[in-house]
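Design request, tokens follow.
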């Protein structure tokens, strides 16, 4: 019951306070740490110090500025001696002003032309001439590229359900049913099919792919009840500087999904311990499966959470977490020093490998003394059963210690799911996978989602060749290009 309550209500962070007792590092060989033993304390004198006054972060330079001058009255510009005051400077302060979304109607006018001299005569010259309508994402629809980008960003980047967005537009006097907006998203997603194929190829161009999956409820799935869960998969890979975040909807959680997506890929694959990935952990596989230390830590955190707030005991779970904390401390040092992959590998070889060997030996000694079906027994068994995958991150400095990059990539979808709860149709789920892919990849490449989607939707109807489509990938664009396109 305590564990269930913690799963429902506790904070999601797994960070733990570092023990203040410096002797704890020498107690790893003990099965338990005495609960009655109190740390030795020593009074120290803290010297006085000065604290910097916090400074407000300046407003972005790219925002337009509107100058408002507050001047003194003209009669106050005359000194008591009769001399006119001279301006010697000014004081400037900047405040942020937000104007709600500007809604406008774009009227496309196509003049018609005809020859009066050929009137009534059947000839090619007598036909009415008019310019072809410009290509659009949704031909004959009322939604421009900006409208589609706005709706997609609101739902998939900000987690706003379409029925709420419909209410927001009503405040502007615009009545657009959520069913209409849903169909817009499906059509927009379908038009981006070739872009998605290119992103999938780009995903497999790097040396590492992180993968994760989460359930999603989809209605009107053929042959399935509405209460049956489907799954949204996420893959993060490609160039580490401009990565691809690829979402893929599937009605199943079977290993066929990652096998299809990763066909032809050769490199590292980092995941949790879900059995669908075991197919890659075999001799001769072109894919090297990497484990996740965060999942090991999570299991030991559950042991502590199940004790309840009143428990004062310090034992095996804390010892395990201290080992893991030291491993993460090494990774933090590597990040702060901005080490190269070769330097990270050398650092891990020197400092992390001995800790891992000691950690494994401690767990193997502790496992026979622990009930296998208890939380601690499960945590120990999980770590030891997947140990060969957990230590593979030592091989290459480009591999992280955990799969948090995939979990962070899928988090926006999980947050949005809490608001819109389910997808109304499989087509909507596929469109969601496409638009989440575009938005999260744009964010990972440093692009603002709305600006990128608007840029994409304006130019995609004119793309004809593969080069045209390739130029629209987030990896090919810069924030400056998007900003100029909106001016």
């Amino acid at each position: 019951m305590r564990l269930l309550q913690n799963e429902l209500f506790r904070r999601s962070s797994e960070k733990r306070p570092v023990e203040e007792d410096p002797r704890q590092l020498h107690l790893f060989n003990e099965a338990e740490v005495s609960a009655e033993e109190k740390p030795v304390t020593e009074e120290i004198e803290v010297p006085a110090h000065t604290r910097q006054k916090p400074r407000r972060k300046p407003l972005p330079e790219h925002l337009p500025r509107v100058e408002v001058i507050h001047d003194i009255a003209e009669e106050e510009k005359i000194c008591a001696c009769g001399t006119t005051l001279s301006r010697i400077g000014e004081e400037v302060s900047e405040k942020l002003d937000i104007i709600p979304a500007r809604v406008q109607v774009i009227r496309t006018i196509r003049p018609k032309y005809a020859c009066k001299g050929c009137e009534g005569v059947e000839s090619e010259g007598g036909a009415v001439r008019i310019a072809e309508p410009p290509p659009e994402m949704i031909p004959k629809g009322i939604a421009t590229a900006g409208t589609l980008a706005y709706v997609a960003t609101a739902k998939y980047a900000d987690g706003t359900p379409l029925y709420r967005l419909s209410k927001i537009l009503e405040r502007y006097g615009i009545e657009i049913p959520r069913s209409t907006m849903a169909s817009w998203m499906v059509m927009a997603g379908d038009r981006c099919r070739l872009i998605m194929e290119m992103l999938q190829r780009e995903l497999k161009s790097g040396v590492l792919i992180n993968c994760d999956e989460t359930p999603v409820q989809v209605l009107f799935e053929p042959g399935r009840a509405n209460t049956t869960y489907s799954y949204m998969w996420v893959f993060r890979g490609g160039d580490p500087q401009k990565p691809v975040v690829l979402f893929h909807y599937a009605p199943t959680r079977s290993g066929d999904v990652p096998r299809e997506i990763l066909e032809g890929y050769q490199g590292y694959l980092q995941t949790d311990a879900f059995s669908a990935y075991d197919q890659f952990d075999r001799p001769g596989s072109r894919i090297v499966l990497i484990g996740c230390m965060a999942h090991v830590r999570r299991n030991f955190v559950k042991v502590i959470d199940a004790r309840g707030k009143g428990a004062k005991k310090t034992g095996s779970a804390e010892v395990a977490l201290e080992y893991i904390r030291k491993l993460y401390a090494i990774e933090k040092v590597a990040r702060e020093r901005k080490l190269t992959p070769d330097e990270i590998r050398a650092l891990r070889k020197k400092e992390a490998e001995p800790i891992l060997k000691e950690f494994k030996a401690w767990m193997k000694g502790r496992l026979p003394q622990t009930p296998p079906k208890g939380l601690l027994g499960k945590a120990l068994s999980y770590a030891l059963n997947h140990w060969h995958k957990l230590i593979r991150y030592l091989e290459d400095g480009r591999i992280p210690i955990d799969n948090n990059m995939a979990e962070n990539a899928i988090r926006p979808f999980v947050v949005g799911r809490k608001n819109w709860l389910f997808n109304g149709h499989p087509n909507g789920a596929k469109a969601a996978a496409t638009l989440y892919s575009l938005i999260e990849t744009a964010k990972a490449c440093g692009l603002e989602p709305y600006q990128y989607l608007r840029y994409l939707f304006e130019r995609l109807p004119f793309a004809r060749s593969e080069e045209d489509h390739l130029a629209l990938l987030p990896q090919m664009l810069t924030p400056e290009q998007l900003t100029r396109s909106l001016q």
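Comment from the thread starter after seeing the answer: thanks! The radius of gyration is 30 Å.
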